[in-house]
Design a protein that fits this description.
Number of helices: 2
Strand content: 15-25%
Shape: extended
Helix content: 25-40%
Distance between the termini: 54 Å
Radius of gyration: 18 Å
Order of helices and strands: EEHEH
């Protein structure tokens, strides 16, 4: 986990935008979707863009590792919502 500094010079992005990159070994399922660079290097990269600087009252909340853990936990919630939306809605009894 690392923070990319000086590379987030995008027009229209708010001040304080941070880019965090995580490198992991790709699983067998991810290998078919790797970029050419990822295939050559043997690593899969994930980039998170956030404007979270420091959360008041939470020690260490400004560290990239903490922000990565926060983003990954939120992704689990989003995945559960996405899967839940695919299920058909329950029907009312007696109709």
């Amino acid at each position: 986990m690392a923070e990319l500094i000086g590379l987030n010079q995008r027009k229209g992005w708010p001040d304080g935008m941070r880019l965090l990159v995580r490198r992991v070994r790709p699983s067998a399922g991810h290998r078919k979707n790797l970029t050419a660079f990822e295939t050559r290097s043997g690593w899969k990269y994930s980039i998170i863009a956030t404007n979270i600087g420091r959360m008041w009252g939470i020690a260490g909340s400004h560290h990239p590792q903490w922000l990565d853990a926060l983003a990954r936990a939120h992704a689990v919630v989003e995945d559960r919502v996405r899967v839940g939306m695919r299920r058909p809605a329950p029907t009312a009894r007696g109709t």
